């Protein structure tokens, strides 16, 4: 079975990419257990707690990331450089367990996967 990586690169509000990526991620988990989840660029904001999307009339799906361990999705990484560029501490609590990696280490992890899906 191929190893599949999901890359979240867009901010959680303003487009449906994050929500669609999460739906695809959960659906794919029924087919394979070898899934990696990466949060890069503005995608690091997908897993920040305390967001209130209802204030901008958006649907709250961010808390749904909390169910990833129930789907045996435990390989999650966040780009440390992307966090710094957005003024977010690497020690920040996220809605899921995600290991912060520098870009070079993140690329090495990505190379371990056969299929990359970007949202």
UniProtKB/TrEMBL annotation:
Primary location group: cytoplasm
InterPro entries in UniProt: DsrEFH-like (IPR027396), Sulphur_relay_DsrE/F-like (IPR003787), Sulphur_relay_TusC (IPR037450), Sulphur_relay_TusC/DsrF (IPR017462)
Gene Ontology molecular function terms on file: transferase activity
Claim: Protein biosynthesis is one of the keywords in the record: no
Localization annotation: Cytoplasm
Quaternary data: Heterohexamer, formed by a dimer of trimers. The hexameric TusBCD complex contains 2 copies each of TusB, TusC and TusD. The TusBCD complex interacts with TusE.
Protein's name according to its UniProt entry: Protein TusC
Annotated organism of origin: Franconibacter daqui
Upper taxonomic lineage: Bacteria, Pseudomonadati, Pseudomonadota, Gammaproteobacteria, Enterobacterales
Gene encoding the protein: tusC
């Amino acid at each position: 079975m191929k190893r599949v990586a999901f890359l979240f690169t867009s901010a959680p509000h303003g487009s449906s990419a994050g929500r669609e990526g999460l739906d695809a991620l959960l659906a794919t988990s029924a087919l394979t257990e070898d899934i990696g989840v990466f949060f890069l660029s503005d995608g690091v904001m997908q897993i920040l707690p305390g967001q209130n999307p209802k204030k901008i009339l958006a649907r709250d799906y961010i808390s749904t990331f909390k169910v990833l361990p129930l789907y045996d999705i435990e390989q999650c990484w966040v780009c440390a450089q992307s966090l710094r560029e957005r003024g977010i501490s690497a020690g920040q609590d996220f809605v899921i367990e995600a290991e912060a990696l520098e870009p070079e280490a993140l690329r090495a992890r990505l190379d371990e996967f056969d299929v990359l899906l970007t949202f």
